[in-house]
Design brief:
Layout: E1 4-8, H1 13-24, E2 28-33, H2 40-50, E3 55-58, H3 64-73, E4 76-81, H4 88-93, H5 95-116, E5 120-126, H6 150-168, E6 173-179, E7 181-183, H7 202-210, E8 217-220, E9 232-233, E10 235-237, H8 238-252, E11 257-263, E12 269-270, H9 271-282, E13 288-291, E14 300-301, H10 306-312, H11 320-333
Parallel strand pairs: 1-2, 1-4, 2-3, 4-5, 5-6, 6-11, 7-10, 8-13, 9-14
Antiparallel strand pairs: 9-12
Helix pairs in contact: 1-2, 1-8, 3-5, 5-6, 7-9, 9-11
The chain binds nicotinamide-adenine-dinucleotide and uridine-diphosphate-N-acetylglucosamine.
Length: 340
């Protein structure tokens, strides 16, 4: 029987796209998700799309008994670990919740993996661990910086735990994937990003304006040292991010220890460029006003993608117009996300 991949957080935004890519590539997938920020509908839609249902276990990565049961009853060969809380603002108001979910949850998962003899792990990290880099593009060998919030610190702490663990236990094969700014949706428009309440991030905010749910975008600052004064980021299609996981999963089999790869395109776009690109793709106007900078924001951030290209044979393929039109298709097909 084929070995299985455990995907924690597999019902969420990036996890659902990756689960679909895994199933399409012929993997058997077990999803563990407590649905605190997602819906089982994403998994149902995956089944419709690829005619295979991932096995779903509703539960929490902090539940050690459950994890032990999963590892005993399934022949798991590797874990893709997406589960965690990700709202920067919320992490400032409830830091303990973030450290408990993200850090304690990850430690619990690692202990269960070790006991089960499963040592292949792909971890969802973030470009936020670089802090405010003065040099662009950002390479993996740049020192990590000072994340400005508990969410970012939780990612950095988990990275450091994984480094320490791999040093003392050489059987681990770990990928730290540092995502830049994942946006977009599956081209079918069936699965996509479904933020709870008011979106914090740029792309879902813009698409909710275009669909008429929100009125006006606040552009956080136009006085950055960037070409048009607004923040510049490396937006990457979620389908490219998903494919990056499959490549990392293959690559770690031959590489012990901790391997760090940026998942970015290598190109930065400003907030104003994103607004324009979305208007072009959707045919809708996105009204905006410039307000003061958001605390904790940096001027610019984009990836050096060469290491991933060389070592994983992976590059981001999808263009900015594709990211915009796929976001818009998802938003139109599911104006209320998975709540319909
Ligand atoms: P998401 O919130 O859509 O997905 C996370 C999933 O984990 C959700 O389905 C949620 O229900 C689940 N979950 C949370 N805590 C859990 C727990 N204790 N036990 C079991 N399930 C739990 O987020 P996403 O955008 O898909 O992000 C996936 C991962 O990638 C996260 O770890 C996030 O921090 C990281 N990341 C995301 C971005 C981004 O821009 N979306 C950027 C960098 C890193
Ligand atoms: C944010 C988080 C980062 C997290 C990432 C993915 C902060 C400080 N950083 O990154 O830790 O990993 O999301 O979840 O929150 N913008 C506006 N108006 C808006 C929203 C955003 O102008 O309403 C601007 C921002 O100033 C930034 C750009 O758009 O220049 C992208 O913002 P966002 O989508 O929130 O991503 P990041 O800030 O890069």
């Amino acid at each position: 029987m084929k070995k299985k991949i455990l995907v924690t957080g597999g019902a969420g935004y990036i996890g659902s796209h990756t689960t679909l890519a895994l199933l399409e590539a012929g993997y058997n997938v077990v999803v563990l998700d407590n649905l605190c920020n997602s819906s089982v509908k994403s998994l149902q839609r995956i089944s419709t799309l690829c005619k295979i249902a991932p096995e779903f276990i509703q539960g929490d990565i902090r539940d050690r008994t459950l994890l032990d049961r999963i590892f005993t009853s399934h022949d798991i060969s590797a874990v893709l670990h997406f589960a965690g809380l990700k709202s920067v603002g919320e992490s400032v108001t409830t830091p303990l919740n973030y450290y408990e979910n993200n850090v304690s949850g990850s430690i619990n998962l690692l202990q269960a993996m070790k006991q089960a003899g499963v040592f292949d792990l792909v971890f969802s990290s973030s470009a936020t661990v670089y802090g405010e880099s003065k040099v662009m593009p950002i390479r993996e060998d740049f020192p990590t910086g000072q994340p400005t919030n508990p969410y970012g610190r939780s990612k950095l702490i988990i990275e450091q735990i994984l480094q320490d663990m791999a040093k003392s236990e050489p059987q681990w094969c770990i990928a730290l994937l540092r995502y830049f700014n994942p946006i977009g949706a599956h081209p079918s428009g069936m699965i996509g990003e479904d933020p709870n309440g008011l979106p914090n991030n740029l792309m879902p905010y813009i698409s909710q304006i275009a669909i008429g749910k929100l009125k006006k975008l606040s552009v956080f600052g136009r006085d950055y040292p960037t070409p048009d004064g607004t923040g510049v980021r490396d937006y990457i299609h979620v389908q490219d991010v998903a494919e990056g996981h499959l490549c990392a999963l293959n690559a770690i089999r031959e590489r012990n220890g901790v391997n760090i790869w940026n998942l970015g395109t290598g190109v930065g776009y400003s907030v104003l460029e994103i607004i324009k690109a979305f208007e072009l793709a959707s045919g809708r106007t996105v009204p905006f006003q410039v307000i003061q900078r958001r605390s904790g924001d940096i001027a610019e951030c984009w990836a050096a993608p060469e290491k991933a290209a060389k070592e994983l044979g992976w590059t981001a393929k999808r263009s900015l117009p594709e990211m915009m039109s796929d976001t818009w298709r998802w938003q139109q097909k599911s104006p209320n996300g998975y709540r319909d």
